[in-house]
């Protein structure tokens, strides 16, 4: 057996929603990483003290418990995985993987047991269901009754709102109410935010971009309280995924971004990111509302009781110590202007795109964070409105597409090199060659690849140049346009005697005066007009010319149409085409070539037969034209034909034709009339 065991498509239940991810068992720890949020559960092997194998709705599941009281449940295993996981646990964790049966009787009467962060409802010592107490948002008591309300998850189609437990009165201990005891056990582990005690510190009137407004931020040991003029938000530190500290492009402001899951709610609006904007010049002296001993014991040197510095540094430092998360800052990326971000537009708003070491983040409306792990490919596209910018498209593995538009093309080289260094899949690698034709600053590492996009752009450019030749010549004449000299240009172009006529009309003016007038005028450079290129006229098709040969598919379709009709009676014309397309795609390349050759031969034979018929019909027409008077025969012709027939009788005997004398006389009279008419 190897040192590690890895499983894909393992699911974790989060407030009624199944999130898939990857689970890895190693000798040192157990690591689970969610594919949706990227959150990592790291369980040290030394803390494992419980492992149960259970039958669940998604196949089989495993329940792990630690000495610190945390419980982790993962589902999606197969029945065959039990043996290798059990052997791995015995060999490396010294923990036995036990099988635990679930109660499926459907009874609603049993025993409620509190074990760490779970409320387990058992029937005959078998678990019927378990409730994570961290999902409880409120706990209310009544007469012999306890009501639990739960946090809602927007990703679920159906959510559990509340559960009511009937608690019978206890006969043994009258001093303690069983209902109150049950409620206290729930509230001790529930995620119920209660502002008890004083805040560790308070930041006044901080500018918040999302949600918009100015808020007082009160830092409590377990949650963050945003107090504004209209809304209040309480954010538990357990819902904070990531912290970002991003410099603004103007180098005078800073963004502090807090990623939340689940998001905070304002009506029907969900805010997955909390974005604060600070000025670098704003300083603060901060004093924590704790003793120095408590600060040292709780934060282990990360914070001190008295601190001073920039406001954004103080907020980020306190949040990092309380949330126990690393702060993500931009990496080594630098844009064309030297900034660590790129100005672009997403949807209808303009913002800043920050390339990070492990992803991209866009601020601020709406904020978007994309990890490299969830990116399927990226694409560089030409801008839709102008050629001075381009679009950067990101497609995720879930099928979502994000388009960041209106990026200055000077940023292209830096962004391409960054994406290439991170080994992301680029759809159109040849696009950089197309941009290099316009901007020499872009370095190119893909000269040996064919760029279909560039070839298409060149073809479109040639068409535009041919269509705009006339506009260019007009534009050149407009640059040197002078109303006082326009008539002279027309005269010089169309009238060879224009100067002579002018001199004859002004007879008193001498050549010297005209020379002075020419000197007084500004020197003018007359550009020779370019000869307009004749536009290419569309060639008219010759009706009698040869037609383009039919494709192999059309030849096959013509020969197979009747067979398709017979196999599918009552099929429509459009359905015949669809059916034929499916049949043609199923044919292999060799079968297509064989069918193409045989059908070409058949078409040639049929074409030869048609040509032969045409020639025969054309020859018959000519014979009819030449022999249009076959009914008329002269007497000499009849006699000569009779003599030739008598000569041929030596070989084959034939009866001599009898000529009706009445017909002969009519023929003679007709011939005489024709000759006299000539």
Provide structural commentary.
Among the domains are: 4-99, Roll (PH-domain like); 111-170 and 177-188, Structure-specific recognition protein (SSRP1) (PH-domain like), CATH 2.30.29.220; 201-328, PH-domain like (Roll), CATH 2.30.29; 342-422, Pleckstrin-homology domain (PH domain)/Phosphotyrosine-binding domain (PTB) (PH-domain like, Roll), CATH 2.30.29. The radius of gyration is 46 Å and the shape is extended. Strand 6 and strand 7 (71-77) form a beta hairpin. It has 16 helices and 31 strands. Strands 18-17-16-15-21-20-19-24 form an 8-stranded mixed β-sheet, covered by helices on one side. The chain is an alpha+beta fold.
How are the SSEs placed, and which strands pair?
Blueprint: E1 5-14, E2 17-25, E3 29-34, E4 40-44, E5 48-56, E6 59-66, E7 71-77, H1 81-93, E8 98-100, E9 111-115, E10 118-123, E11 126-132, E12 136-142, E13 145-150, E14 162-166, H2 178-189, E15 201-210, E16 213-219, E17 223-227, E18 232-236, E19 240-247, E20 253-266, E21 269-279, E22 283-287, H3 292-299, E23 306-310, H4 311-323, E24 327-328, E25 342-346, E26 349-355, E27 359-363, E28 368-371, E29 375-382, E30 389-396, E31 401-408, H5 412-421, H6 431-436, H7 452-467, H8 469-479, H9 483-494, H10 498-505, H11 511-520, H12 552-567, H13 573-586, H14 589-626, H15 635-648, H16 661-677
Parallel strand pairs: 5-8, 19-24
Antiparallel strand pairs: 1-2, 2-3, 3-4, 5-6, 6-7, 9-10, 10-11, 12-13, 13-14, 15-16, 15-21, 16-17, 17-18, 19-20, 20-21, 22-23, 25-26, 25-31, 26-27, 27-28, 29-30, 30-31
Subcellular location: Nucleus, Nucleolus; Nucleus; Chromosome
Biased composition (Basic and acidic residues): 584-611, 618-638
Keywords: Chromosome, DNA damage, DNA repair, DNA replication, DNA-binding, Nucleus, Transcription, Transcription regulation
């Amino acid at each position: 057996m190897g040192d590690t065991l890895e499983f894909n498509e393992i699911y974790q239940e989060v407030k009624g929603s199944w999130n898939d991810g990857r689970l890895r068992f190693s000798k040192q720890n157990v690591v689970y990483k969610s594919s949706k949020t990227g959150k990592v559960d790291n369980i040290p092997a030394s803390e494992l003290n419980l492992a149960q194998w259970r039958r669940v709705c998604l196949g089989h599941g495993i329940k792990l418990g630690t000495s610190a009281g945390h419980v982790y449940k993962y589902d999606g295993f197969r029945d065959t995985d039990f043996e290798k996981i059990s052997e791995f646990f015995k060999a490396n964790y010294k923990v036995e993987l036990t099988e635990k049966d679930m109660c499926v009787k459907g009874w609603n009467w049993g025993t409620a047991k509190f074990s760490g962060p779970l409320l387990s409802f058992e029937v005959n010592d078998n678990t019927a269901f378990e409730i994570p107490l961290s999902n409880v948002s409120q706990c209310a008591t009544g007469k012999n009754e306890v009501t639990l309300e739960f946090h809602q998850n927007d990703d679920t189609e159906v959510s559990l709102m509340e559960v009511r437990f009937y608690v019978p009165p206890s006969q043994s201990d009258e001093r303690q109410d069983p209902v109150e005891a049950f409620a206290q056990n729930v509230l001790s582990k529930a995620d119920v935010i209660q502002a008890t005690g004083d805040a560790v510190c308070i930041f006044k009137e901080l500018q918040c971009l999302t949600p918009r407004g100015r808020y007082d931020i009160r830092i409590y040991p377990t949650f963050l309280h945003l107090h504004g003029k209209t809304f209040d938000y309480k954010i538990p530190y357990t819902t904070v995924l990531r912290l970002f500290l991003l410099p603004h492009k103007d180098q005078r402001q800073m963004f502090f971004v807090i990623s939340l899951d689940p998001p905070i709610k304002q009506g029907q609006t969900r805010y997955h990111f909390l974005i604060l904007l600070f000025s670098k010049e704003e300083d603060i002296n901060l004093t924590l509302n704790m003793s120095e001993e408590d600060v040292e014991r709780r934060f282990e040197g990360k914070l001190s009781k008295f601190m001073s510095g920039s406001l954004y540094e103080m907020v980020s430092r306190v949040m990092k110590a309380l949330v126990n998360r690393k702060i993500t800052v931009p990496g080594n990326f630098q844009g064309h202007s030297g900034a660590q971000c790129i100005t672009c537009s997403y949807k209808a708003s303009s913002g800043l795109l920050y390339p990070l070491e492990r992803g991209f983040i866009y601020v601020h409306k709406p904020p978007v964070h994309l990890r490299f792990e969830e990116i399927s490919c990226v694409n560089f596209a030409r801008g839709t409105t102008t050629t001075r910018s381009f679009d950067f498209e990101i497609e995720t593995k879930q099928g979502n597409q994000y388009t960041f538009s209106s990026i200055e093309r000077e940023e292209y080289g830096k962004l391409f090199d960054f994406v290439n260094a991170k080994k992301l899949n680029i759809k159109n690698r040849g696009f950089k060659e197309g941009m290099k034709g316009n901007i020499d600053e872009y370095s190119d590492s893909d000269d040996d690849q064919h760029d279909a996009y560039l070839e298409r752009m060149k073809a479109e450019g040639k068409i535009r140049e041919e269509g705009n030749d006339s506009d260019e010549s007009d534009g050149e004449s407009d640059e040197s346009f002078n109303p006082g000299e326009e008539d002279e240009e027309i005269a010089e172009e169309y009238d060879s005697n224009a100067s002579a006529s002018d001199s004859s009309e002004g007879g008193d003016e001498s050549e010297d005066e005209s020379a002075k007038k020419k000197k007084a005028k500004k020197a003018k450079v007359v550009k020779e007009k370019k000869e307009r290129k004749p536009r290419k006229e569309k060639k008219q098709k010759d009706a009698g010319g040869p037609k383009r040969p039919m494709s192999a598919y059309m030849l096959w379709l013509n020969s197979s149409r009747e067979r398709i009709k017979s196999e599918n009676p009552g099929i429509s014309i459009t359905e015949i085409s669809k059916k034929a397309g499916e049949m043609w795609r199923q044919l292999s390349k060799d079968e297509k070539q064989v069918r193409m050759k045989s059908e070409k031969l058949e078409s040639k034979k049929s074409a030869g037969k048609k040509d032969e018929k045409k020639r025969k019909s054309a020859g018959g027409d000519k014979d009819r034209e030449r022999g249009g008077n076959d009914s008329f025969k002269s007497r000499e012709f009849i006699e000569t034909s009779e003599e030739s027939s008598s000569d041929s009788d030596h070989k084959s005997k034939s009866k001599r034709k009898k000529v009706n004398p009445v017909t002969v006389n009519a023929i003679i009279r007709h011939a005489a009339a024709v000759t006299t008419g000539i």
